[in-house]
Design a protein that fits this description.
Strand order of the largest sheet: 7-4-11-8
Oligomer: single chain
Radius of gyration: 16 Å
Low-confidence stretches: none
Structural class: alpha+beta
Number of helices: 5
Strand content: 25-35%
Length: 197
């Protein structure tokens, strides 16, 4: 596998170039494109993950189902499907029936890890609805644990120190929308110009 590239953005969220992902995350991380995804089953349970303990940034924090960086020319749904397979090991049975909803298309954040590494991302948030709790086989380089949680438990995580900073910020916007299966479709209009749906 080649070097993963991230899409660099200007202040108007337009693509202005690419850079290697690993080398780009440091104390002065450039503003770039990312996404967060919450996998929700038909019972309204959310797949919550703990980042691998040996991740360079934010190791061991609990967060949404998966996150990642759309590659150059990759649309949002393609990027999410790639990460659901590569990060969570979701099989084709789960992914063939998945439906995507754009929930927080304008979300962006900046966070600093304990080692000083900065996350500086335009990070649309998407719900991926699956028919059932299919088997999850997390990639141990990415995910320590993955568990199906009730929405109430997800809300309680916000106040705990092990929650990721972006999870806290996202939940501040998601909680007023109600239970995950009730989150309205915010559409594609507010997605960054650099990212197709």
């Amino acid at each position: 596998m080649g070097v993963e590239e991230i899409v660099l953005l200007n202040a108007d969220d337009e693509a202005v170039g690419t850079a290697p992902k690993g080398a780009s995350h440091h104390r002065d991380t450039p503003y770039h494109l990312a996404f967060s995804c919450y996998v929700v089953n038909m019972e309204g349970r959310v797949l919550i993950t703990q980042r691998a303990l040996d991740k360079r940034t934010f190791p061991g924090v609990w967060t949404g189902s998966c996150c990642g960086h759309p590659g150059p020319g990759e649309n949002l749904r393609e990027a999410i499907l790639r990460r659901l397979r590569d990060e969570l090991g979701l099989g084709e049975a789960s992914l063939t029936s998945v439906s995507f909803t754009s929930v927080l298309p304008g979300f962006q954040y900046r966070a600093v890890a304990e080692d000083g590494t900065v996350e500086n991302e335009r990070c649309p948030v998407v719900r991926a609805t699956v028919a059932a709790n299919g088997p999850v086989r997390p990639n141990p380089e990415e995910v320590e644990r993955a568990e199906w949680w009730t929405w109430e438990r997800c809300l309680e995580l916000v106040d705990r120190p092990e929650a990721s900073p972006w999870y806290r910020l996202q939940l501040a916007e998601l909680a007023p929308l109600g239970a995950p299966l009730d989150w309205p479709d915010a559409g594609e209009r507010d997605l960054p110009p650099a990212l197709a749906w």
